[in-house]
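USER:
I would value a second opinion on how I read folds in token form. Give me a protein, with the fold worked out from its sequence. Write it directly below this note and I will take it from there.

ASSISTANT:
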Amino acid sequence: MCEWGETVSVNVKIPADLSHTKTERWKETEIDRCIASIVRSLQEGGVDMRASCCGHGNTAGRILLQDGRTILILRDC
């Protein structure tokens, strides 16, 4: 996992309930470098997300999906 602050810009869909405009919109935002390719692929595949964090080596990474499910990202042991 990457250190806090190691990010890559990814174009992500912001759900209406999380948007200051109260409408769904796309935004270029900073995503943790080590999971950016996963987030980008999910977005390109039409998977709606609410949040993501790699855990920065302290916890498992997580991608929170709009439908309430969570994708856990575990380190290799």
Q: What stands out?
A: The chain has a mean pLDDT of 91. Strands lie at 7-14, 25-32, 49-53, 61-65, 70-73. The chain is about 10% helix and 40% strand. Residues 7-73 form one domain.
